[in-house]
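Shipment paperwork, digital attachment
Item: protein structure file
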Amino acid sequence: MNSLSKWRLAPALYGFIATFFIANLVLADEAPKVRFTTSAGDFVVEVYPDKAPKTVENFLQYVRDKHYDGTIFHRVIDNFMVQGGGFDVKFVERKSRPPVAHEGREALGRGGPKNVLGTLAMARTNDPNSATAQFFINVRDNAFLDPTLIPPGDPVPKFEYQGRVYENTPRANLVNAPQLFGYTVFGRVVSGMDVVNKIKISPTGAGGPFPSDVPKTAILINSATLVK
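Attachment content:
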């Protein structure tokens, strides 16, 4: 092939590369979206499989299985978060699949959002790897819920946490410390935040097995559906 032929092929090659990258940027912008239709109104969340793939697939499978339909927001705390997806109106807990592995640090390391106003995160017990179906929406910036990224090295030469400095700490001690896992953020509310704000100020009290923070008037998730 002579140099002229190479020159003629180059624009076509560049055009293909440009089209490929533009197409991928468009796909990246098309985050899956889920519409929650509730007794307080509708809101839509988008989720980020490129940031927390296992968590997102777990959540979307529950949506496909209609797990959330007929559940309530059973824990509502103004100026903190609203939590749901686990109990029906009679406070019967929905059966769930095995827990999903915690992805908080990985998601944050991939540029995912922190626990800020309007973001969607997985609820769990004190065990970082216990998240199943329940989720919460942050109704304020909750930095104390963020995963803690561990600096490189083993031992880690220097690590700061809550005003204290730790030096030459075995990496495993930090990676496995329960208080450093935080909560996995995997999406955010993209429309209907006014509905979430209405939910967060619901009068609450005791309900079912919970001594507090249960809306006195049940806030029902009628359906959760993928937005086409």
